[in-house]
Threonine/serine exporter-like N-terminal domain-containing protein
Amino acid sequence: MPATIQTDIIDLCGTVGKILLENGAETPRVETTVEYIGKAAGIDLSCHATMTAIFVDSNSDPTTHLVKVRTGDFNLQKVDEINTLSRRFTNHQINYDQLKAGVTAIDQRVIDFSWWQKILGAGLVSVAPMLLFQATWSDLGLALIVGICGYLATQWIGRHSQTPYIGVGVGGLVIGCLAVGLQLSGLANSADNIIVSALMPLVPGVAVTNSLREIIGKHTISGLVRAVDAVMVAGAIGAGVIVGGALARLLMGGA
């Protein structure tokens, strides 16, 4: 195989791995997908993925291709689309040119929901735990409102600050302040139930799930990195809730 074609395949595999890792895929999935694509394209590839970089090289060429990764918000739809595309290629349902065009299109596409869909989703996620608590209808409605406010605060801070964890911390502060304030004013029956429910949109569920899967799969380093990141997010949320609750009690004169 000509060197230029081999280099092009390795570059494409690096892009595939970057898209997967940036959008929430676990490292075993990234490595397996890249190696399967290389094998289907006629190259014996080796891939090693970490949380910050992906290394791709051919076993017949000593040159290693390095792709730097910057993880941020997850988008599992892109992960699903890349997985579908790679499966179709490995099953010889599409050729290499079609694979390359598809990967480029997915990489450049901005996949997002409208704001009203995000707000509605955050509210519904905040309401669901209240059903387990057998909460009153008033608390259920308040949890929806508080959850939306916390989510909007998190998104707003995230768009205006690059400081890690500050967004979820402010979201927790808003939720804690509103929930405790509503209870002290007599509008809510249980601030604790509202806080637990309203925090659901902020919980790093994907990071926790991926960290456990990676640790179980013996990808210990990346699994621990994800776990530490999830713990930091949880710590920022908890600190925000404590400060918010204390602030509400201070302003409203609660015990």
In short: The chain has a mean pLDDT of 87. DSSP finds ten helices and three strands in the chain. The two ends are 75 Å apart (CA to CA). Residues 115-252 form one domain.
